Amino acid sequence: MAKKAMKLLLATALALVVGMTPIKGAGIKEDDKSFAPFWAQFKTAVANKNKEAIATMTKFPFAYGGSNVTKADFIKKYDAIFSAKVQRCFRDAKPVKADDRESYSVFCGQTIFVFEKGKGGYQFTDVAEND
Q1: pTM for the full model?
Q2: Which residues pair with residue 117 across a beta bridge?
Q3: Beta strands in the chain (DSSP E)
Q4: Model pLDDT for residues 74-110, shown as the tens digit of each residue
């Protein structure tokens, strides 16, 4: 009987210790967890110059150069938006979360790339000069 009680005590102690062990990723907000896979996919598409994949992750109409562009126009303007300098920047860029809403920004020199959460998840929504 003492053996059975000892096993029960050890099992209870183990359950308590396991229950108190921090879980990897604990403390990370839900929107941060949902942005991370999007960012990895977007960054990979930029690295691979996959215009179609980037376009599918972009909200249209897309404001660029003072006008709203369509998906076809966006693909044509891809090289201007994602220059070689921007592609290098994206390799190590760390997105910054906006405090006031569900959006992230990536800063590449004087250019800001904005990603906002919509109904279907995160999308590339804006590119602008840093004021």
Answers
A1: 0.72
A2: 122
A3: 62-64, 67-69, 96-97, 103-108, 111-118, 121-129
A4: 999 999 999 999 999 999 999 999 877 789 999 999 9
- Tokens 């108190």 belong to residue: 20
CA distance linking residue 58 with residue 56, whole number of Å:
6
113 touches 125 (CB < 8 A): no
Which pLDDT score is estimated for 24?
36
The position carrying tokens 């990370």 is: 28
Specify the 3-state DSSP secondary structure of 58: strand
Crossing angle of helices 84-92 and 30-47, in 10° steps, is: 140
Query: In this structure, what DSSP letter does residue 93 have?
Result: -
Domains of the chain: 30-129 (3.10.450)
| Alpha carbon 73 to its chain's center | 24
Query: What mean pLDDT do residues 57-69 have?
Result: 91
Please count the other Cβ atoms lying within 10 Å of the Cβ belonging to residue 28. 11
